[in-house]
């Protein structure tokens, strides 16, 4: 009466699962930042009242310590998230990579692939709002949103992987 012992390696399966989980977690983290930013860009502000250019509709501008006011909604509509693994897009809510202002989250998967999550906008005035201009104080909206959920982003990657 003998005992047969067989060893079956599943390293490639485990690495694939780690890669898949890393991409899913990155997508979850990028969307957490994006959704928080969208939420932060909503609501009333306490600055001066202006007319939306080309309309008779008024809006209240933001002060320097507030998130930017929504006059037309373009910034909110253009806010996108994307995830890349080794330079190839694997998830996208984005017109095209190459935004003017973006928040970046980066990790490495089980197979050593670089996985990067971006949140940002392609609008030219995105950086102007974020960093200010010679005539306008900064109204940081993206970094501030990222900072407010950074612990949540860490928690996403610290959960049990499988």
Describe the structure.
With 162 residues, the chain is α+β, with helices and mostly antiparallel strands. The chain is built from four helices and six strands, in the order H-E-E-H-E-E-E-E-H-H. It has helices at residues 11-40, 74-78, 125-131, 142-158, and strands at 49-51, 58-60, 80-85, 88-93, 101-108, 114-121. It has a four-stranded antiparallel sheet with strand order 4-3-6-5. It has a two-stranded antiparallel sheet with strand order 1-2. A hairpin with a 5-residue loop joins strand 5 and strand 6. It is elongated and about 90 Å long. The two termini are 38 Å apart.
Q: Brief overview, please?
A:
By secondary structure, the chain is of the alpha+beta class.
CA radius of gyration is 21 Å
User: Strand tally, please?
Assistant: 6
Shape: elongated
Through-space gap between termini: 38 Å
Q: What would the average pLDDT be, to the nearest integer?
A: 84
Classify the secondary structure makeup into a structural class. Answer: alpha+beta
Task: List the uncertain runs.
Answer: 94-100
Strand content: 15-25%
| Number of discrete helical segments | 4
- Biggest β-sheet: strands ordered side by side in the sheet: 4-3-6-5
Order of helices and strands: HEEHEEEEHH
> What level of helicity do the residues show?
25-40%
What composes the largest sheet? 4 strands, antiparallel
